[in-house]
Predict the structure of Prenyltransferase alpha-alpha toroid domain-containing protein.
Amino acid sequence: MTRINLDAVIKYVLSKQGSDGGYLSFQYLDMFESSAEDTYYALSILETLGVEPPRRDRAVEFLRHLQHEDGTYSSVEVAFYSIMALSLLGASPRDPRGASEYLMKALASNMNGDYILPSFEAEQLIDESGVLKSKDATFTLTSADLTPVPIRTSMIVLALHKLGGLDGEAEEKAYPLLKDALSNGGLGTPVSLEVAYWALEALSTVDHLPETSNLVKWIYACENIDGGFSSTPGSKTAFIENLYYALRSLEILGSRPKYVSSHLEYVTSLQNANGGFRRSRELGASALDYTFHAVKSLVLLESL
């Protein structure tokens, strides 16, 4: 069994719930609205650890209001995380049909290269109560901040599947983009573990994995003998998310990591005094996404 302090993990996660019912890693006097992404991470951690999330109704209300009245969302990312978080709460979007239509439109735009960009700039920076909003509502993104197309495509597929709206048409549109992501446009290997993970997660949902023996070898080439995985072979970027991406990818592919004990020691070394986890041995601030990846990695390592 791992030596992490589970009680401290739970306390850390619960401390990140805001007055709106959602969660945010970095709050200051509750001035920032919660984010769909952090809310998903927090709820997933609590579910994994068998903890009933507090103020469930407020969390559902917060997540449902991230969907616009016309059924759309400010971005594919917000749609994905809010839909997945609502599912953890046993709830659905306020307009499931509108959500599915928005996601299908986004998928079609990915195919055509005419992407639906986040509409944060249309929102107001300060709400009517004088509260500064989070990136889910108002943060203006540059092209460098946009999620890569294969990952956005995977988010669309997974969200549609959760909504029960993933049909043959959606699979036909998504499959070439997802398969191509595993070979980086025909170059033979993925551009990163992150892209490989998202593509595999979506492809496993549609139950249509391509031939992947070379991919398994590539993932093993990212494994570090002293714990963790690098984003690409030889890159030495042993961030906690890369460990999760690799472990989950190997699980989908029916394989196991080589250095289990080293990975367990690596994860254990990342827990901070406040109960949360940091991104690497060198980077010190706790965050909900790092904590999510740490907890989920321990599950995949069969130590939790």
In short: Residues 116-145 have pLDDT under 50 and may be disordered. The two ends are 7 Å apart (CA to CA).
